[in-house]
Write a structure and sequence with these properties.
mainly beta; seven-stranded mixed sheet; 11 strands; 48% strand
Length: 123
């Protein structure tokens, strides 16, 4: 089971930036994909961004052009750079891993989760 630990959440004003980090116990190059989800009370968890082991990325429409998912060279830290933050980005953000062996297809099934980190954007 991949262990995931998020950090970097906090309180920021609208239009500001934050970078979330997710440290993994296994390199993302040995698993299929990594991702970031977010959740607010009473709502379903939403996929924000995902990155395939081969580098392809995808984003929720609501964050395209503002958020960037990336990984470091060893593949043991995945980042979510969040710019131009809006109050509606306020949520608990979770790191997720698709632990399956890498495939050619970017159709992640996330099956391991971190504990979450709170992001609050004030207006």
């Amino acid at each position: 089971q991949v262990q995931l630990v998020e950090s970097g959440g906090g309180l920021v004003q609208a239009a500001g930036s934050l970078r979330l980090s997710c440290t993994t116990s296994r390199s993302m190059f040995s698993i299929n994909a990594m991702g970031w989800y977010r959740q607010t009370p009473g709502k379903q968890r939403e996929l924000v961004a995902a990155i395939h082991t081969r580098g392809s990325t995808n984003y929720a429409d609501s964050v395209k052009g503002r958020f960037t998912i990336s990984g470091d060279t060893p593949g043991t830290t995945v980042y979510l750079q969040m710019n131009s933050l809006k109050p509606e980005d306020t949520a608990v953000y979770y790191c997720a891993a698709d632990q399956r062996i890498p495939s050619s297809y970017f159709t992640p099934i996330f099956n391991s989760w971190g504990q979450g980190t709170q992001v609050t954007v004030s207006s």
